[in-house]
Amino acid sequence: MAVVSTVKMTAGQFLRLGEDPPGVRLELVNGEVAVSPSPTPKHSHVVTQLVVLLGANVFERDLGELHQDVDTILDQFNVRRPDVLFFSKPRVGFIGEKAMEGPPDLAVEVISPSSVETDRTDKFEQYRKAGVKYYWIIDPAMRTFEAFQLKARRYVQIGRGSGADVVRFPPFPGLDIPLTRLWRRG
Question: pTM score, two decimals?
Answer without folding.
Answer: 0.93
